[in-house]
Amino acid sequence: MSYQLYRNTTLGNTLQESLDELIQYGQITPQLAIKVLLQFDKSINMALATRVKSRLTFKAGKLNTYRFCDNVWTFMLNDVEFREAQEMAKVDKVKIVACDGKSEFAV
Amino acid sequence: MEFTAENLEHAVLQFYHSDSAVRGHAHQWLTAAQASPEAWCFVWELLHPSKSAEVQFFAATTLHTKLVKSWHQVPPEQYASLKKQLLEAIASYSIGPKIVLNRLCIALSAYVLHTLPVHWPNAVLELLATLQPSNLPNIPPERTAWILLEILTVLPEEFQSSHLAHAQKGLVRNELQKNVPQVISVLQNILATDTSAPNNETAVEVMCQASCCAASWLQLGVPLPECEKLADHLVASVFASTSSPQFHQTGLAESSLDALTNMATHPETHRYPSTCLRLLGKLLPLQQIIQAQQQRDCTEGGNEELVSSIYSLFISFAETHSRLLLDSLLSDDEKTNVMQLIQLILQCSNSPGEYALEENTSQLALGFWYILQDDIIASEPEQFHLCVALLSPVYRSLAEVMLRKSMLPFVESAWTSEEKELLRCYRQDIADTMMYCYSILRDNLLELLHGKLEEALENCSSDPRMWWRSLESCLHAFQAVAECVDIDESRHLPRFLEALHRLPYHQLDTRVVITALEAVGAYAEWINAHPFVLSHIIPLLVTGLGSGDLAPSATMALKDLTRDCQTSMAPFAHHILQASQAALRGGKLKLGECVRLMYTVGRVLAVLPVDSIMHYLNQLLMPYVEELQYLVTLEPSAAAKAGILLRMKMLSMLFATLDIKPRTENETEPDVSEGSDVGTCTTVQQKTPQQSAAPGNNEQVQPVFFVLQRILPVMHAALDKWYADTHVVQALCSALKHALATLLDDCKPLVPEILMLILKSFQLQPHPAALDLARQILKKNPQLFVSGEGVDLAALFQCGTMTLSLPEVPAVKAATSFLVNFVSQSRELPQLLTVVQAYGEELVQRLLQCIGGESPRSVLEHLSDILLAMNKKHCDNLSRWLHQAIHQDGFPSPRASQEQKEQFVKMVLKERANKRKLQETVREFSLICRGLVGTDYAAQSSPFF
Question: Taking every annotated instance into account, which residue ranges of this chain make up the domain Importin N-terminal (chain B) (predicted)?
Fold first, then answer.
């Protein structure tokens, strides 16, 4: 079983939009759509765990809220500056949801 | 085609020996064959020794698949015969092919998992008893041992990957764990007898298999006190494998180290602290192998992989038991071993060679230093002080090692981009580690760094080409700890920043100067509390602006400083502005840097008297305005677009920062995201006169007002030519938005013109950025919004309605919040009321279409907000419009029945307060319209995506 949190990303949302449309027009069944969605979970978990090597730093003006529940860390940050090498972006609010990536793939 | 042995054999051959089209077809047919009930019969025929290895392998794989997926097809009375067949098959394949034998062993373990504990209660013990040389006289004894070990190895692995029911899984786990002592004893015997005299290849193979098997069972979990002897044997195997040539290439050392790692890191081990420490004593001698390999490294090339594996074992042990290590540090008996372990890990961090190019080992230890430091900090005060006293020398050495390891390469051009990226990440990790060193060493680290800096400076003065790397790594370390140093530190940092003044820039590699600039930026907050150091660093910053290589870091550092130390910058304002002007005109800056530099220009200008500001604006900005004016007269081209965008973004940044009536701290900062043109709109509070920092400024007109006034006609012209270009319209709206956020009420005289601009943009082509801007004005000052003469509110409302159907979520979101604001204010302002009454029906129709399937489900949440606002303010009209709409046949979707539509309308009209409930109603109805209601897919996909 893979984490499903990546469904709520641009890529995941776009996939679900496409699946919705395909069902609406009778091109695929909802059963097939769910299979596609589960495969998406698997692939994106695997890809993010094994293929991403980039790293960036960020600094938050304020850590607004934090919690650790059901093995998931959640952080809400305000006034966050992201830096990657020479580039920089500023964002008002950032929510970080962090799951244990190691235990998922250890077995 | 029938699933007969003959046909299958043919298909397998086709699969392996044909082109891809035939292969695809064969694969499909073979998969169907595997799924069919006939598979239970044909596998045995295909396993016949006369068949080819490919066919046998297919049969063994099919058998495993059947046992895992179609176990329910086997009636219990056939369990016994199936077991017999499996064991016989394994016996007949005892001499290979290995790949078939391996599959059969996995199949047998799948069988065991299904029959434990009810149908085959003592499976593991029986296998141990059956697979003995005495029972199988026809098979060589080593083969028998190998097969037994193979089955035992795959059994826990198959268990971990199996999908048994929860209850069954618990039962099986218990059964397996009951047999741990017997399995361990078998493994010990094999590892013990063979280490002394491995006489042939099979014996070596059996030993490797035994250590793999140990790794597999240890991962399942073996109580630590039961593995002490096993640990001895495994350590001995590692030694044996490195000393005897027979064992090279067998992987024995790796599998034994794996087994030891699993033993040392199993979560249950924390229950046996004293056994853990004894285990550490057994592992430490392995360091001799590292030393031997490193000595050999100098002569004949050591085995880096082996060294890494041994370090990894030590590090895994230390990371898992860091708390235990700290507690044991304070006991005299254990202290020596613990210190030895920590020194070993320090030695790992200090691996010889350049990271990424020559070695890959030093990064293994970085995580440990964090964990250890974290545990030290979490200790009770008494233990904390003792640990810090004991470990300070270690962290001191670590800091020195990090300084060396983080040095940049002499010649970067020889590195591939991947290696460069690895080094960048490694240096970032080192920067983090430097922070951990600071947590332990505090002031002493700054002292150390300062000493190293002075040393490097002195060396550089004699031979900069040789020594710039040590200088750079010192600066990098100072930058790394910037975040943790106290704001009132006043011993070391002034000396550090003063030293920057003495850097021989012109003789140094640019990379040193880049790091110096980054370090300055990192200390912006501290500098704000100690503004006297500014005079040391301004020359560095200004020099940086003049060079293309340095400009990115120089503009970044200036931005940091002007953000955090705005008022202290006043004495240097002219210097900075003149340098900025020269840099902007010098043509060496890239687009992003020009825009970023305008941040500094705006922030520095804001502290000057208005006369000076206007003077500088004329000099510095007017040329850009004039160029813009010219560019918009040109026919659209890529070059013209780039020119317009650059100037528009520069203006936008200036509008955001040149504020001579700054808000107090509690008010929201303007949004100046560099990354996005649209940005997120921040709520700007209404300002009262008391909140202004400088009361005298209140009567003064903000300079931005004049710039905006001057630029508005240019914007109109830009829109005429570029209305179809999203980027230009976004940049334009973003500039306006920032100007409004700075001017607040001061922008009143310009509002009609701004609204005309938005409207024009929409009439030509709708863009979400413009709607977002309109919403901001509406929310901030509705009166202002309706007072604009010639503003066609109806057209704006219709634009919003149309935008709801766009597929992009941000556009719909902007339109929604505009419409919600519009509707919510419409009872107070007659101009708005007329519009809602006239065009509300169109809006309701559009909403239903969107909910009925036209829009992606992700926007439903926003659409519900409009329904709620309408229901609060125009409930009668909403009811009428909704009822009229749903009486059209097949609207909004033929999938919704009349009854369902009426139920939906009833629920919508009922809900005037609970946003969440309304969202649910809308979602449910939308699922009906899309044919998704009640499907697993709808339940599983995220509610609003």
Answer: 26-92
